[in-house]
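Incident log, structure service

09:12 report received: a user says their structure output differs between two submissions of the same chain.
09:20 pulled the input from the user's history:
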Amino acid sequence: MPKSQLYIDQMLEIFLEGLGISFVMEQISYCVKEMAVNAKKANTKRLYFADKGLNPHDEKDYAVGMKDFKAEMLQKQAYYLKRLKEENLYVKVELLHRRGLVSVAVRNNVPLLPAEETRIREKIAKAYSYNTLEDAFSDMLDESEGAGLGILVLVLMLKKLGFAGDFFQVYTLNDETIARLILPLSVDTAI
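09:34 re-ran on a clean worker, output below:
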């Protein structure tokens, strides 16, 4: 994914420069990478479950699958990259500026499972409740599937830039999962 990350960064830089806000490039780039990695991981997880004959909708199968998912995903990166292409499982980045809002979205064509959506919403809500990493660190480390530190850093970084409210969303629409930042481009915020 390094080539694609470079391309995304180049497009993001052009987009942000065009809006006169290139000074947030590093932060927004981090957010896009975090969202893209999560999207790719979700796509890979579906392949992994299918390969293992596990039903991700079944709680027991899900727990069994998640036990070795991360380790196997890392061990078989080339295999899963090839399979993602073969199965047309994609990750798309969308950059929009409309009505004073900047929208940065990452889409993948695997809908969230209800349990995943619940966990993600809980992680986002927790992240919004903290003001520093120190406040959250011990609480976030106890989670089984993932510590949620990427989401936490994303939310805290954008809060530090002056964004408030519901600026980060993850949802399913028409068989796609969408992770979206919606940031106001106005004098009321840091940009």
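09:41 both user submissions now match this output. Likely a transient worker issue. Closing.
09:42 reviewer note: The mean pLDDT is 88. The longest strand covers residues 176-184.
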